[in-house]
Structures are given as C-alpha cells and as structure tokens.
C-alpha cells in the first residue's frame, strides 16, 4: 500500500526533470564581444544547475544563429529579442539577460548622428549581427556604405589609427566594453534587450532553463 503512495510522486519527479541524456553536452554558441565572458559564465551556471554539461563554441555573429536554426547547435548565449522572426527553429527563454545600447562611434571632427546611417557618402563598419539588429529591431535600412568586420577589437584599433571614421557596436549596460584611446564622439541609436535561445528540439526544457536562469541572475 505504501508503494502506491510513492509511485505518483516518482512519476511527477520524472516528468519534471530535464529530458537530456546524462552523457549529452550542450553546444552553446557565442561571438567575440568584450562582455562575452559574463554571459558565458551565467549560461554555464544555469545549465550546471540542471545537470547539463556545456561546450561553448566561438563563431561569427550571424553564422552561429544560422547553425542554431539548422540544429547544428543546442543553444546560443544571447541574441536579439525577436530572433525567431528570422529563424523559426529557435525558441527564446523569456528572461531578459541583458540590456545594451546600439552606438555609433564617430571620429571627433565628423558629424555624429543617426543621419550618418542614411548618408551614401559615409562608410560605416559593423559586424553582421549588429547590422541585422539595426534592421530587424530598429527598422533601419542603412543607406551608407557598409564595411563588415566581425571583431570589435579590430574595429577599435582601426578607428584609433584613423583608418576608419565610423563604426557601430553594442555597449552592454553595466558590462565591460572596448576602450577607445582616441578623441571621438558617440550617438546612441537605441536600447535593446538580449535573450538566451535554444533549438526547438529543446523547447520542453525552456521552463526549467527559465527558472534556473532567474536563480543565477538573482544571485549575481
């Protein structure tokens, strides 16, 4: 008779536990960013609480999202809030992980406003992820000439040496950012939020990931 009382509890425990093989390792993508290490730490601890090992894979900003959508990865560390409007095989964990400003960095003696994005005579550098955010989140169809550089450190170095006059980057609120050792001006295009995403095959884990992520963020 006691066994009958225990069985429902065991059944509920099985239902509530993450459906991941104990030997599985989640492949989580990230891209080069001065604050990347902060989010890698948060995501690693989140999955550790669920008993899931993680392997972090550094990839170019948009390539990682395409690979996640194709099922070649299990998750991405943090991406734009409306990612599933572009990639329909990803699922957002509904906890804002970060707020960031999208900022234009301008050489000191040049105009510095949002109008630069619409000037066909100007050349602006950014990584593909930032260019996508400009369009997908802020609805900006950039008319300026665009140079693609996937490394913010490289853009900063070129900017400091005077080889480029404008670049756009995301500056995380309260996080580390690339210092610029040259006179310059900035213009904030707007503020956006970033979220953790998983491939849709792991959609059943989202409630557990959400709870674990909230615990980790509260602790920090």
Structure report:
The protein is α/β, with parallel strands linked by helices and 220 residues long. It has 2 domains: 101 residues, D-Maltodextrin-Binding Protein, domain 2 (3-Layer(aba) Sandwich); 94 residues, D-Maltodextrin-Binding Protein, domain 2, CATH 3.40.190.10. It is built from 6 helices and 9 strands. Strand 6, helix 4 and strand 7 form a beta-alpha-beta unit. Helix 2 packs across helix 6. The protein is elongated and about 55 Å long. The termini are far apart. The N terminus is likely disordered.
Compile the SSE list and pairings.
Elements (H helix, E strand, L loop, with lengths): L1 H15 L8 E6 L5 H14 L3 E6 L2 H9 L5 E6 L9 E3 L5 E10 L15 E4 L1 H9 L8 E4 L3 H9 L5 E7 L11 E16 L6 H14 L1
Parallel strand pairs: 1-2, 1-3, 6-7
Antiparallel strand pairs: 3-9, 4-9, 5-8, 5-9
Helix pairs in contact: 2-6
Compressed to H and E, one letter per element, the order equals HEHEHEEEEHEHEEH
The CATH class of the largest domain turns out to be Alpha Beta
Number of helices: 6
Query: Could you name the ranges where pLDDT drops below 50 across 5 or more consecutive residues?
Result: 1-17
- Extended strand count: 9
What is the C-alpha radius of gyration, as a whole number of Å?
Answer: 21 Å
Any guess at the CATH architecture of the largest domain? 3-Layer(aba) Sandwich
Give the terminus-to-terminus CA distance.
46 Å
Q: How many structural domains can be distinguished in the coordinates?
A: 2
Question: Shape, please?
Answer: elongated
Report on the biggest sheet: 7 strands, mixed
Which band does the percent of strand residues land in?
25-35%
The CATH superfamily title of the largest domain: Periplasmic binding protein-like II
Structural class: alpha/beta
Mean pLDDT, all residues: 88
How much helix, percentage-wise, in residues? 25-40%
CATH topology of the largest domain: D-Maltodextrin-Binding Protein, domain 2
